[in-house]
Amino acid sequence: MELNADFTQTVTVLNADNPWRQSPSAGVERKMLDRIGDEVARATTIVRFAPGSAFAPHTHDGGEEYIVLEGVFQDEAGDFPVGTYVRNPPTSRHTPSSEPGATIFVKLWQFDPEDRQHVRIDMNTAATTADPARAGVATSTLFQDSQEHVAMEVWKPEVTQAIDASGGAEILVLEGALSDGDAALGPRDWLRVAPGETRTLTSGPDGARLWVKTGHLRQMTGA
After folding, report:
1. Cα separation of 16 and 18, whole Å?
2. How far apart are CA 40 and CA 78, in angstroms?
């Protein structure tokens, strides 16, 4: 299966226009954003787990990166409430569950194969620093390596700034609103910007809180 698999193209997916679809696992629904492969896939997805969900132990050969959007996601390492950012690197193993139910934004098979760093950050309490190059924007780095930079960004109301898309960029709106020229983006809306494309965004009247990944699409396009 291929969905939004041409990484030379900029893609916007609005949450309201992307219906929930049943997955092969009982009690699990998903909204696919991009995908290359079937059930073992390089995939970016919003996944909803019914209350009482529990799964067999499994290994993430290609790594798993996720943000908890609703509820509480759980495994042997603890309980991860709304706003938690997690990276389970390649070869990591866990037994996930969610007693109260949960919704997560998750990326699979998108790690450096040699990455072994576990990351668990509460974005609700993460300190931010004003971006000296972009007035009205504060950032908190969540992860960085030679291939990508991942950050939470907080935009003040009605700020217009460019994003660095030289190596591609990916944005998930966590709170507030963002305008991308023609498109108005709200919570759980997703934007993927092709490498080399210039993109200027404007935050809404209440500002915006964003999850932003940059640099990672070079390897998909050779840019």
Report:
1. 6
2. 25
- Residue-wise DSSP of 13-32: E-GGGS--EE-SSTTEEEEE
Number of Cβ within a 10 Å radius of residue 216 = 22
CA distances from 53 to 27, 49, 75, 90 (A): 7, 6, 11, 23
Task: Give dist(CA 201, CA 208) in Å, integer.
Answer: 11
Contact in structure between 166 and 196 (CB atoms under 8 Å): yes
Q: What distance in Å separates the CA atoms of residue 203 and residue 195, rounded to the nearest whole number? A: 22
Q: Each residue of 106-131: pLDDT tens digit?
A: 999 999 999 999 999 999 999 999 99
* CA atoms within 13 Å, Cβ hemisphere of 28: 16
Residue-averaged pLDDT of the chain: 95
Residues 6+ positions from 90 with CB-CB distance below 8 Å:
60, 61, 62, 63, 111, 112, 113, 114, 115, 116
pLDDT reading at 75 higher than 70: yes
- The domains located in the chain, with CATH, are 19-122 (2.60.120.10), 129-221 (2.60.120.10)
How many CA atoms within 13 Å lie on the side-chain side of 125? 5
Q: Please report which helix (H) or strand (E) contains residue 207, including its range.
A: strand 199-214
